Each structure stands twice: as C-alpha cells, then as structure tokens.
C-alpha cells in the first residue's frame, strides 16, 4: 500500500504493542465513499480484529453513503457489519464505473452498501 493517503481519504488502524495490525481506508468517490484496502496482519486473522475495526467505525459509516467491493467469500463478514449486497445498477454511476473496472479485470467481488440503522 501507499505510505501516504490521497487527499480526502480517511485511514483507520488497530495497533497492538505499537504495531499496526489492521487498517482500512474510506475513499471519497463522487458523493459516496468506498471502504477499501481492509487488511489484518496475516498472523492475527480469524481472531475478530477485522470485525472489531468495522464495529469501531460504525458511527462514521452511519453518516456516509458507503460502499465496498469485498471478495465474494467475504460477503457474510461484511454483512455482519451492516453491509448488504446490491445490484450494480442501484449504485451511483461513479461507484458502478469503479466496480465494473474491477470485474472486467477478473476480480471475484461483489458490490455491497452500508445500511444505516433505522433505530438511530
């Protein structure tokens, strides 16, 4: 990953003993945001760290029109963080364009959108 985030991006990290063990980016795309580049240290995966990170940013996500393009095998993981699968034509054009570029490059991904809680 780049050492410097592009202007307007928000970076969230989890640290352990001064070591970054998980991170993700929220990138502005038109009037929306794209959750991207989520990564957990390989030796610490499957311990709930990614879920913890997504839980911690829920207040931020609740104020954004946020999409993500997870690998299809991670759809349930993102679903547990209030993302739902979406048809491509339901997304804004800027999100559709970026998603279709990934699909055309052979990525096995799906399109998901964060759903705001109706109880908030």
Describe this structure in words.
With 120 residues, this protein is an alpha+beta fold. It has a single domain (10-114), classed as Gcn5-related N-acetyltransferase (GNAT) (Aminopeptidase). Helix content is 24%, strand content 30%. The chain has helices at residues 49-56, 58-61, 75-79, 93-104; strands at 10-16, 19-29, 32-40, 66-68, 83-85, 112-114.
Looking at the structure, the CATH topology is: Aminopeptidase
Radius of gyration: 14 Å
Write out the strand line-up for the largest beta sheet, numbering strands in chain order: 1-2-3-4-6-5
Question: What form results from the Cα inertia axes?
Answer: globular
CATH architecture: 3-Layer(aba) Sandwich
The structure class reads: alpha+beta
What string, H for helix and E for strand, traces the elements in order? EEEHHEHEHE
Strand content: 25-35%
Largest sheet: 6 strands, mixed
Can you tell me the CATH class? Alpha Beta
Poorly predicted regions are none
Q: Mean of the pLDDT scores?
A: 92
Number of domains: 1
Helices, by number, come to: 4
Q: Secondary structure elements and their pairing?
A:
Layout: E1 10-16, E2 19-29, E3 32-40, H1 49-56, H2 58-61, E4 66-68, H3 75-79, E5 83-85, H4 93-104, E6 112-114
Parallel strand pairs: 3-4
Antiparallel strand pairs: 1-2, 2-3, 4-6, 5-6
Q: Would you kindly provide a brief summary of this structure?
A:
The chain is an alpha+beta fold and 120 residues long. It is built from four helices and six strands.
């Amino acid at each position: 990953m780049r050492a410097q985030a592009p202007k307007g991006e928000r970076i969230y990290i989890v640290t352990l003993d001064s070591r970054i063990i998980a991170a993700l980016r929220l990138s502005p795309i038109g009037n929306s945001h794209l959750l991207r580049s989520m990564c957990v240290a390989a030796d610490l995966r499957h311990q709930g760290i990614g879920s913890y990170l997504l839980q911690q940013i829920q207040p931020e996500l609740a104020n954004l029109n946020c999409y993500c393009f997870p690998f299809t095998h991670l759809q349930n993981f993102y679903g547990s963080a209030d993302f739902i699968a979406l048809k491509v034509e339901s997304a804004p054009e800027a999100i559709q364009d970026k998603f279709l570029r990934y699909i055309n490059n052979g990525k096995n991904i799906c399109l998901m959108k964060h759903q705001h809680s109706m109880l908030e």
